[in-house]
Structures are given as C-alpha cells and as structure tokens.
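Quick one: co-fold with uracil.
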Amino acid sequence: MRVVNLIQRKRDGGDLAREEINFFLQEYVAGNIPDYQASAFLMAVFFSGLTEQELLDWTESLLSMAPALDLSDLPGPKMGKHSTGGVGDKTSLIVGPLVSCTGITVPIIAGQGLAHTGGTLDKVQSIPGFNTHLKAQEFKEVLRKAGLGIIGQTDDLTPADKKLSSLRDTSGSVESIPLIAISILANELAGGIEGLVVDVKTGSGALVKKMTDSRRLAQTLVSLGKRLGKKVISVITDMDQPLGNAVGNALEVMEAVEAMRGAGPADLVETSLELAARMVSAAQPDRTLESVKEQMFQLLNDGSALQKFRQLIEAQGGNPQIMESFELLPNASAEFVISSPRAGYVSRISADDIGQAVMLLGAGREKMNAHIDAAVGIVLEHKVGDRIQAGERLCTIYYNEEAHLEEASQMVEDAFHISSTQPEARPLIHEIIQ
Ligand code: URA
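Sure, here it is.
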C-alpha cells in the first residue's frame, strides 16, 4: 500500500477501504509516515469528506489501538462532556463538577486549544501542580476519589488523537466536520463512558461557524455515536461572541471558580446549567428535565460544585488554594485597556478575532508542542447589547510580551462593533439533537 495513492484517491473524491484507513493510522502513529504526507492526507479529507462507513471505520480503528478505560467497578452512570471548541468556553470546568455532584462519574479526556479556540487541557494545566499526564489506572483512581477527572490524550488510552489533532492544528485541517466528530468520539469513548453530551458551538468563534454546518456536525456526532452503541446528545450553543467575560487559560479558571461561587456571567451560567442538566437527564431518564435543572441551579449556588472542583484539584495534585487566592495562578505582568471610540450599543464582538488576538499574545500554539503562556488573555467589560459611552472601557488585555501587543490590540478593537441601535439578542441554546 502506498500512502501517496491513498492521498490521491481521497483528494479526487474516492472512498477508502477499512484496511487502508487502518494502514494509514497505524503507520502514522508508529512514525512510519512523515508529517508532510499525513497533513496532505488530512487536507484531502478536509476537502473531500468521509462517507458514513469511512467515519465508522476511522473511529473504530482509533479505538482499537488501545483498550478503553474499564469503569464498570465504579458506582453510578458514567457520562462524558465535550465541546467542539470555542472562545472563552470554560463550561467543562463547571459542568464536570456539577454533574459529578449527583453521583455520576465524569471522565474528561480533554484536548489542547485548536486553531483560535481554547482547550480545557490548557486551562487546567494553568493550575500549579495539576497533573494531566496520568496513566489509565491513575486516572481511574482520581475518578474513584473525586467522581470526575480531567486528563489529556495518553499513549495508553488514545495513542493517535493527540498526534493527529496537533498535526491538524498546525496544518490547517482542524475545521473538518468528519475529523472533529471522529476526534471527539474516539477520545470520549476511550474514557469508558456510557453516554455523551457534546456542546456543538455555532457562530464566528466556533470551529464550524455556520448554523447549517453546525447542525450537520451535531447530526454526525449523534448518528456516529449510535453506530458505535453510545447515546450522544448534541446541544448547539451560541459562539458568536466569547462565552463569559474571560478569554485566556488562567483567567478562565478564575471565572469558572467565580461562577461556582454564584457570581458568574449570565451566558456562561445558563449554558453550563443546560449542558449539565442534559447530561444528568440522559443518565436519569425517569426525572423531568425541569427538576434536574432546578437541582443543577441549586448545586451551583450552594457551594457543592465548588467543593467538587476543590476535590478534583486535590485528587490531581494541584494547589486548591488557587480558589481563594487567584494570585497563585499565573498572572500577566502588564495590562492594556481598550476603550470605545464612540457612544452606542455593542452590536457584535467577533469571537474569532478575540480568539486570534489571545493566541497572538501567546495563549495558542503556532507549532506542534509549542509552549503557551497561561497568564495572558482578555477580560471583556461589555457584551453584545450593552449601552456604552464614548471612552468607556470595552475590555482589558493582559500580556507579558510587548512583541505582538500592537497587532493584538488592533484586532481586539476591530472585534468590537458599536452601532446606534440595540441589536437583537441571539439565543444561547439554538437546538438539541439526539
Ligand atoms: N475537540 C476535539 O477533541 N477534537 C476536535 O477536532 C475538535 C474539538
């Protein structure tokens, strides 16, 4: 079998057989296919797509490379939560603790930031001491102790996805519906879950921006899940402006903690409660959605989720004191304020541009395995729909290096649109597909 023939066939819209997909994945992971051929192959998939059979074959091939985590001796249902990626999306840090407060085990196998979007893995790694490099059995002990855990892709659970995702990230093929669906299901199913809620983002800050494409991704996740014998619920949520106010790894951990103290931004809280409620109700189908939602609201506001988050940090070796003392998290050395050039309404905040600006400040990777700066980011002072005065602060940029500040601040300024009329509000939850 020659790799170049597979690339050419996919490039020209042809189908691949199961053995050919297996061959490509096995040989790439073994280091026998160079990155330049693998990137060309992924780019061919980006343009030509995959058939339903290829989707299934690809995911099963990834899953066959390592046994999934066996959580059968842990009590209660096991539910996963994943996001297709957004800007300021720290919902996993809130949803995981909330859901696990109900006795459901939540194993989260998280990814690094991709393209302009942030990754849950990068966020928790900003907590001093928090160890995401656990072996499968160590992860299981964390789940037993805390009821939830967050790790990155590991060689003993998901040997291929880390390599493939990093390659996609640095070679421009992240935004592919079949590759996103495969990556999410292969990661999550390796964690031994029984069901999964996927937050499918739509809008300028999402990897898949148009509603029609987001719906297609949501449906692909549900149908691929079904073929793999797992219940998947896709919740299509808004990502046209950043979620919450904070964008940047440590800043987002701080905001998640605030939200679990009952003081989170309304959009972040509403989205997190909806996702958590969908997970619990999938695991406890006899209850009404309303009663589950009430319970989630209570657990968020009575300190239970916060307590669970503390247990998670402790179980993974992190310093739980960060919850009372944010100065123990990485903090940037300098600030730069962006003010409004005129009075009016904030009519749009391009999440894509905000995400790109935060990457420029150092929060994202230009190359595979590059170091990122966990302290940098942006905190929004206003969101879409707010009335503002000329000269009023729109947001603050937190940075360490001057090098890209000028370019990043220009991008942030351009991301804010100010108009004389109040814009129509977009819904936070667009659709549920199951
Ligand atoms: N999340 C993933 O795990 N993979 C993707 O490709 C996109 C979002």
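If it helps, Residues 84-85, 111, 114, 165, 179-180, 183-184, 187 surround uracil (CB under 6 Å).
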